[in-house]
Amino acid sequence: MPHKILLVDDEPAPRSGLEILLRREGFEVRAAADGASALAQCAEFRPDLVLLDIMMPGLSGIEVCRRIKAAPDTRLTPVVLITGLTATSDRIQGINAGADDFLSKPIDYNELLARTRSLIRLKTYTDELENAEAVLFSLALSIEARDPTTHGHCGRLSEISALLGSRMGLEPEQVTALRRAGVVHDVGKVAIPDSILLKQGPLTADEEALLRQHPVVGEHICAPLKSFRLVLPIIRHHHEKQDGTGYPDGLRGDEIPLTARILQIVDVYDALTTERPYRIALDSSAALDHIEDEANRGWWDPKLLVEFRKMLAEDGEKVADIRRRHAQRNGNNGNGNRLPYY
């Protein structure tokens, strides 16, 4: 399948010349004569690369680039700004808008082809990476679906953990890691048979030992993705406890990564406030009191619990909206043994 290029220029002659050149090289090309058409084509055509003239009537190339990079579906699409402008300030504007490269007029066709091929190779790699992430997320959600009483848990955990991380001033990449970890934190349960995961009654020692390996398995599954570098510690350590009695490594206190501790608090809260076959859901106040009792026993980070209480008090409507969007489906699998934090 040929790679797709969107060519945006309000001048017909140079636009036609570039179209002919790029089609000869085997690319599928669409053209747009103004910024509004470019944005519509970008959403519909889904190009692998956008060649975008800066000087256009209406929306400038800078503004079109900014909007392409702001939209979730196109933010990773490479954009090359074509300009006759030489001032450094103009290029800085383009960089701030998210441009990936620049070409100066008059265009050198060999340079155009070299940069086009280079950026499309990068886009192909990015697409492969996104596809791998999508597969992981699908796998994680299929695991969640094995137990109908946990429907929506991953979505709630993802968004509420990210909200708490943002409130605490974490760097954006750490917040993104929390958002991803909320979805894939239990992906290692793919290695746990239903006979254990959904067992009615207590687990045997051997069954519990196998279950406790799921954070390690999850880490190994996600390790090949370099974009998950900050997610891996959350996956591995989200069952550690402050007093060292957690698993898999028996970490204590601040040895447990902050992001993992954030996920823990939200995970426990969501489990307690969601109905299970073996108990009714607690209201928010009762759940927080329960978590505080466990924090006093040395399980959870008490300072984080204070921040979480503040967030629920001040941003309660945001949390409520997240829970509404990821509402639990009614269902009962008869699983009467499970502790709420597995």
- The overall number of domains is 2
By CATH, the topology of the largest domain is: Hypothetical protein af1432
Task: Using the coordinates above, name the CATH class of the largest domain.
Answer: Mainly Alpha
**Average pLDDT across residues?**
88
Order of helices and strands: EHEHEHEHEHHHHHHHHHHH
Largest sheet: 5 strands, parallel
- Overall CATH architecture of the largest domain: Orthogonal Bundle
Round the Cα radius of gyration to an integer and report it. Answer: 25 Å
Protein described:
- The chain is built from 15 helices and five strands.
- A five-stranded parallel sheet has the order 2-1-3-4-5, sandwiched between helices.
- It folds into two domains: 4-126, Rossmann fold, CATH 3.40.50.2300; 148-325, Hypothetical protein af1432 (Orthogonal Bundle).
- Residues 330-340 have low confidence and may be disordered.
- It is 54% helix and 7% strand.
